[in-house]
Amino acid sequence: MRRLVLLALVGLGAQLVDGSLGMAYGVTSTTLLLAIGTNPAAASATVHLAEIGTTLASGASHWKFGNVDWKVVLRIGIPGAVGAFAGATFLSSLDTSVAAPLMSLILLALGAYVLVRFTVKGLRRDRLGHPLRSTFLAPLGLVAGFVDSTGGGGWGPVGTPAILASGRLEPRKVVGSIDTSEFLVSVAASLGFLLALGSEDIDFAWVGALLVGGLIAAPIAAWLVRHVPPRVLGSAVGGIIVLTNTRTILKSDWVDASEGTRWVVYGVLYAVWAAAVAWSVRAHRAEQAALDTEIAELEESGAGKPA
């Protein structure tokens, strides 16, 4: 019973982060399942089965708050489902020990770009409203779906920074569209796992516990992402991406850094991340104050009144 309660709390926390930042549900939940001895394929299958319910609830909540671009959902979600099914089917025979740090290096570069871009310049608006083309979204979805099912998580960490870096969709809609399209990915991955593994290695009580926690958190996260300023959200997402992928690289066979070295690096990154978020909050307040002043001046001059 304690384990089920813990899993429900993990599902709640993971969905709260995932629904507001567009990533981390699978990574967080799969990490816990692996820590208690679940084999990788069963752990990923358990998480993806739970995600069918959590992503459906999250997508509905994001849609309600106006956070979803349905064209993006379809253009990235359908290729993502294909990649997820393929990854789930072949997980037991795949060696991702080389692919994981390489992907983390790419994601680290994207995360650093997002962090610097949103912290220093805020949301790029010169491209907002420009269409995200299928030639960009389809390959991105295919890769993200494959990584997601083989690694127990990765749809958000791959998809969110790539779309954020394009500057063509505001952060809340990036998060909402990625979360909504993940429903298609979760269904496809679950089908792949059930066909490849059967259901005997999956504990459906664990699936239910993760699902309950996620369902509770989904509407809260959707509300949160609508009310967090884009500049602050971008800095927060960028920091998460940098920290997560730095950890993967430092622990990989490529680097194999000592524990002391890792904690020094983490400490520096946490300090930089906190400073970046604080700077973004301060910059947002300054921008908002300037905007309020401009509106007040227009109203006083009569320029803001209808003719």
Automatic annotation (TrEMBL):
This is Probable membrane transporter protein. InterPro entries: TM_pro_TauE-like, TSUP/Inactive_protease-like. Belongs to the 4-toluene sulfonate uptake permease (TSUP) (TC 2.A.102) family. It is a multi-pass membrane protein. Keywords: Cell membrane, Membrane, Transmembrane, Transmembrane helix. It is found in: Cell membrane; Membrane. The chain crosses the membrane at residues 72-92, 98-120, 181-198, 204-225, 232-250, 262-281. Its main location: membrane. It comes from the Bacteria. Pfam families: TauE (PF01925).
